[in-house]
Write a structure and sequence with these properties.
With 106 residues, this protein is an alpha+beta fold. It contains four helices and four strands. It has a four-stranded antiparallel β-sheet. Helix 1 crosses helix 3. The longest helix is centred in the N-terminal third of the chain and has 21 residues. The protein is globular and about 45 Å long. The model has no long low-confidence stretch (mean pLDDT 95).
Length: 106
């Protein structure tokens, strides 16, 4: 089946979110914020972490363009920062200052 341009764009956006989420979950954020920090009770694997990150990106209640080509996403107390230029693609964590932290990002 051939996709129309809207379907194709939606599929590309979904794939981009999946790849970004897997890249971030495969990086430092899993050990630092899931394993050591205990910020995500119930998340045990990098795959579960990647799914949670993808959900935040897809359903963010706030999105901000930051310096250096970064994009920040906020949902339910979680911030995901997508940084395509970094080795692990960005980070995801629960800031202690909540939305105030997110709003202060530049």
């Amino acid at each position: 089946k051939l996709l129309n341009s809207a379907e194709s764009a939606a599929q590309a956006a979904r794939l981009n979110r999946q790849l970004a989420s897997q890249e971030i979950a495969g990086g430092h954020a899993f050990l630092k914020h899931v394993v050591q920090g205990g910020e995500f009770p119930g998340i045990r694997t990098r795959e579960e972490f990647a799914r949670m990150i993808e959900t935040v990106i897809e359903n963010a209640s706030n999105v901000k363009q930051l310096s250096g080509g970064r994009t920040a996403y906020w949902r339910n107390g979680v911030v995901v920062i997508r940084h395509p230029g970094s080795v692990d693609g960005g980070t995801a964590f629960v800031p202690t200052e909540g939305i105030k932290y997110f709003l202060g990002l530049r």
